[in-house]
Every structure is written in C-alpha cells, then in structure tokens.
C-alpha cells in the first residue's frame, strides 16, 4: 500500500476516533440520535477495515489476477471465433461462398413471417443452370464447378443488398427479392442474363453458360404461406420455361 493511501487511512481513523469520543462524552438526552450515529460509525469502521485489506493485496497477486483476466479474455475471443466458424460452415455453400439451402430456406421463412405481420410483398426466383450435366460429362467436374462458381458470382454482382441468393442443389439457385414486384425481379434477371452473355462473348470455352428460371411474386392475396409450396411452384415455372427452351433448341 502506498504512503499516500496509508496517510489517507490514518486521517480517516483519526476522524473516526474523534467521532467516537463525541459520542461517549455527550451531555444531552438525544440517545436515539447518538445510538444511530454510533451504528453509522461502526459500519464505517467495518468498511474501512475491509478496504484496507483489499488494498493490501501484494504486487505479485495483482500481477497474477491481471494474467488470469487476460487469459480469460483470450479464451472468450477464441470461443467467439470458433462459434463464428461453425455458423459459417453450417449456413454457407463451400463451393460458391453464397448461403446454402438451409440458409436460403430460413430467409424465405423469415419473409413469410414478416408477410403475416406487415402489408408487404416479395418475389422468389428459382434458377437452374442449363446443360451443366453435359459440361460435366464432356469436360469434367472441375469445369462444371467453375461454371457454378462463375454463375454464383454473376448473380451476387447483380442483386441488391437486401436480396438473398442461396445454392439449394447442384445446379439450382434460389433468389429471394424482398419488396420487389415480379417486374422488378425480371429486371434483376435481365441484368444477370446480360452479364452471362458478356462472359460468354469473352471466354474461349467451347460452350456457353445459360440458365432457366421461374419467378413468383408473393403477397397476402396469394394465400401461400408454406415454404415448400412456394419453392415447388417456382420450380414448376422454371421447369416449364426450360422445357420450352428445349423445344425450340435454346438449351439441352
């Protein structure tokens, strides 16, 4: 304990002794007031002694306590980092870095719950890469993986901050567009199409990347409140468009 601290406690003890002397030497009948004052003095004395003990911890003990605190802080940070990694691996598609199927379905479920409480709307787009099986068979899965990553990057560059892209299967993606109408979502898909066309025109690959899609606008009037039903309906629209493209020779 420093000299200044000792001097402070010495001064407080002297005040305490004077207060006790006043109590013992009183010449009036204010017994209740005196008793109350004595009790306060006793409490102060106990607190003062406790404070002296706490401030008398050795330098070595203080260093040890600081080391323990630092170790606990490091342990907490490490656990937080591990938790963040676990969440990343649980909700991210490792090939593309976009949200995975679970994450995409959770985002859709959140929008459906918001739709129940607010007068809002959103659109959903089911996307399927055309001819990926032929590329895998003809040029290998490494080439097919390159196509999937490229396509995911193009979509990420084309959507807004509130929009969510998720990979839900090998060549299938789900695009969630909060507070976008079907026509606004079509504009987003048009941007994706233009970027893919630009990529195809610049690459030297013996094939082009293409995709089929199905878009639905979801609102209260539609009466669809089930994630599986909505995805199934959007998937059916996508498959219908893909079938039409096959019939006119635009995709395999």
From TrEMBL:
One term of GO molecular function: diguanylate cyclase activity
Gene3D superfamilies, A to Z: 3.30.70.270
One Pfam family per UniProt: GGDEF
Coiled coil, from the record: 9-85
One of the protein's GO biological processes: negative regulation of bacterial-type flagellum-dependent cell motility
Entry-linked PROSITE patterns: GGDEF
Keywords carried by this UniProt record: Coiled coil
One GO CC term on file: plasma membrane
Boundaries of every GGDEF domain copy: 120-252
CDD domains according to UniProt: GGDEF (cd01949)
Xref: PANTHER family: REGULATORY COMPONENTS OF SENSORY TRANSDUCTION SYSTEM, SIGNALING PROTEIN
Protein name in UniProt: Diguanylate cyclase
Gene source species: Peptoclostridium acidaminophilum DSM 3953
């Amino acid at each position: 304990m420093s000299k200044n601290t000792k001097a402070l406690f010495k001064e407080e003890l002297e005040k305490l002794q004077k207060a006790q002397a006043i109590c013992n030497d009183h010449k009036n009948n204010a017994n209740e007031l005196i008793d109350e004052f004595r009790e306060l003095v006793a409490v102060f004395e106990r607190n003062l002694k406790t404070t002296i003990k706490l401030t008398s911890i050795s330098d070595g003990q203080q260093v040890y306590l600081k080391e323990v605190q630092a170790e606990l802080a490091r342990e907490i940070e490490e656990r937080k980092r591990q938790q963040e990694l676990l969440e990343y691996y649980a909700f991210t598609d490792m090939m593309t870095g976009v949200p995975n199927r679970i994450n995409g379905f959770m985002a859709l479920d959140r929008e459906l719950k918001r739709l129940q409480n607010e007068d809002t709307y959103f659109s959903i787009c089911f996307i399927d890469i055309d001819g990926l099986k032929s590329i895998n068979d003809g040029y290998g899965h490494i080439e097919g993986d390159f196509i999937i990553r490229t396509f995911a990057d193009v979509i990420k560059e084309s959507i807004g901050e509130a929009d969510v892209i998720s990979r839900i299967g090998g060549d299938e993606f789900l695009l969630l567009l909060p507070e976008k109408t079907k026509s606004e979502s079509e504009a987003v898909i048009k941007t994706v199409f233009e970027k893919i066309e630009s990529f195809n025109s610049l690459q030297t690959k013996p094939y082009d990347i293409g995709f089929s899609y199905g878009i639905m606008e979801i609102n209260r009037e539609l009466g669809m409140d089930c994630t599986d039903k909505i995805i199934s309906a959007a998937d059916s629209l996508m498959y219908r468009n893909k079938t039409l493209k096959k019939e006119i020779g635009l995709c395999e």
